[in-house]
Structures are given as structure tokens and as C-alpha cells.
Amino acid sequence: MILVDSSVWIDYFNGTETLATKKIDGLLGVQPVCTGDLILAEVLQGFRQDADYQVAKTLLCALPIVAMVSTEISIKSADNFRLLRKQGITVRKTIDSLIATYCIENGLPLLHFDKDFQPFQQFLGLMTV
């Protein structure tokens, strides 16, 4: 199973061609992919048109959606954030720290197009696609 981040879904729904959107095109229907509740909220809140919102909601809700935040993940995410900060790295978004930590703790590779995940890859063992 591969977790797909909002950075990929946003480009995908906007029709922006990137390596990550090409990858998700090739994965859908072939390999199991999922998304998370936090990612679902991030993606869906960005739609301006009701019709586009409904199409995206239908597609995303057809995938397995994992509940990403628990007390354990919240604490581990804070630990990871602090560890990176001690190394001089500031994670800009709390939600990215939660997503990365969820993937690390659950052994899920993350498909993303967001440089904020790089420190999690480099220092904390985040697997990516």
C-alpha cells in the first residue's frame, strides 16, 4: 500500500503533469494506494467548483482512507519535529510532520511532491515512491 499526499492529488486534479502525477496515473487500479483523513481534508477544501469537488470526493472516497492522527502519532510527530529542529531543520507545516510520522510508524511509503518531506526521508527513514 502506498499513501498519496495532497501535493500529488492537487497537481493531479489540476491536470499538472509531474513525475508524481505520472506515477499515480500508473498506480491507480494496478497497485493498492490509499490516502489519509488529513490529506482528504487538505485536497477537498481547495475546490472552488461544486462539480469538481464532487468528482474528487467520489474518486478519493473510493480509496482506502486511513485515520492518521492518534495520541501516539501526535506525540511521535512532536518528537520528530523537535529532533529535526535540533539539527537546524524547521518543518514548516505541522500536518506534514503528522503525515510523515504516520508513514514512518506504519511502514507506508509516501508518494509526494513536497520538499518538506525530505528531512523525514534523510534523517528519520521515511520511505518514498
List the helices and strands and how they pair.
Layout: E1 2-4, H1 6-14, H2 19-27, E2 33-36, H3 37-44, H4 50-61, E3 65-66, H5 71-86, H6 94-106, E4 110-111, H7 118-124
Parallel strand pairs: 1-2, 1-4, 2-3
Helix pairs in contact: 1-3, 5-6
Radius of gyration: 15 Å
Number of helices: 7
CATH architecture level-2 label: 3-Layer(aba) Sandwich
CATH topology: Rossmann fold
Features:
alpha/beta, Rossmann fold, 57% helix, 7 helices
If you had to describe this structure to a student in words, what would you say it looks like?
The structure is a single chain. With 129 residues, the protein is α/β, with parallel strands linked by helices. It has one domain: 5'-nuclease (Rossmann fold, 3-Layer(aba) Sandwich). 57% of the residues lie in helices and 9% in strands. The chain has a 4-stranded parallel β-sheet with strand order 3-2-1-4. Helix 1 packs parallel to helix 3 and helix 5 crosses helix 6. The longest helix has 16 residues.
Task: Give the gist of this structure.
The protein has helices at 6-14, 19-27, 37-44, 50-61, 71-86, 94-106, 118-124, and strands spanning 2-4, 33-36, 65-66, 110-111. With 129 residues, the chain is α/β, with parallel strands linked by helices. The chain has a single domain (2-124), classed as 5'-nuclease (Rossmann fold), CATH 3.40.50.1010.
